[in-house]
Write the structure tokens for this entry.
Amino acid sequence: AIMGMRRSEIAARFDEIVSFAGVERFIDTPVKRYSSGMNARLGFSIAAHLTPDVLIIDEVLAVGDKGFQEKCQARMKQFRSEGVAIVFVSHHLPAVAQLCSQVLLMEEGRPVMLGRPPEVISAYCRSTGTSDQDDVTIGTELRSDRHASPADSFEIAPGQRLTLDVTLDFRVDISQATVGFVVWDLARELYVYGASSDFIGIPLVSASAGDRKTFTFEFETNLARGLYAIEVNVVDLDRHRFAALARGIRHFQVVEHVTYDGIANLYLK
């Protein structure tokens, strides 16, 4: 009632709200005894059954199991299709990528960047990627055969070839190292692919402090729809540790309308 529902609406939607929140077993428990997660679930469930002009959501996907999170996302997509303005505040990058048409990156309360999800997510991940303590500084550019100039991220069709240019600036002497290439599925937070430079015919890297080395990796995106992040790492074989590790340094989004689940695209006909 506080959120504006009429008594008749409450009576008509009560069971549906309780079921959506998944609190059937606790419906006779005073709300003041609910955990913060149960409160958040119930609060979103009530909001999901209103007809708002603007919906403001703060980290609701951080509570509940995967099933509840999927229900939340489906309801927010429905609101969006109905023209409801949604402000979604979250560090959950897969949800941001799937739900938002524009993303505002904030740092200590100040706006840093406004743009489409792939570009802003890529900038955020780069800002939290390579550490100043690393022995090697990693720089990258992602290119597409359909884009004349490099970009932080691309929307592409399955199977499209991408090229990743990698620049390594060495701060210390390293006698032998390998360069690792990893692809992550952000939506599922899964390790999709990983390969090392020595396995594709690139000799072990030897460098002195101040040297710069460049490498090029070409790959085909035989993947289902989703947002994917690229990781680049450098392994110092003598010290048996990472000399540098840059996660989410570049992104690409595969767009297609055939698959409904999975990672690999088998090009079903």
